[in-house]
Amino acid sequence: DHATTIRVLVKHGADVNERAGRNHTPPLCIACAYGSDRAVVELIRSGADVNGCDKKGMTPLMSACHLRGLPTTVSLLLDSGAKVELTNERGETAVDIVMEATPDEEGKYNQVEQALSMHRLAQEKVKN
Length: 128
Hints:
Keywords: ANK repeat, Repeat. ANK repeats lie at residues 23-55, 56-89. Pfam families: Ank_2. The model has no long low-confidence stretch (mean pLDDT 85). This protein is mainly α. It has seven helices and no strands.
């Protein structure tokens, strides 16, 4: 179980924001890409930066939108303060990424798109 492993590593001093690999990918981006919601929750609970990006500017929210269109993961990130308006090196936001995704049979991308749109509307109401 990844969440248990994360808990043990953090207990022994692991940095939940330590980037890895050639793209310097944060652990939260990796957990989001694989749709491991329990790992996502544990990383956030342990202090992971929900807006931390890799060297290409991909955030955890973008990873969740791009690779699998994961509605639960997207909701967890939004509820934890993920910023929808951030852009990657190509100038894309999470909304742009999910809009480019191939439609899926289960309608996950539609659910993600709706969650992002609702979050954006809520943020605009707060500003006004």
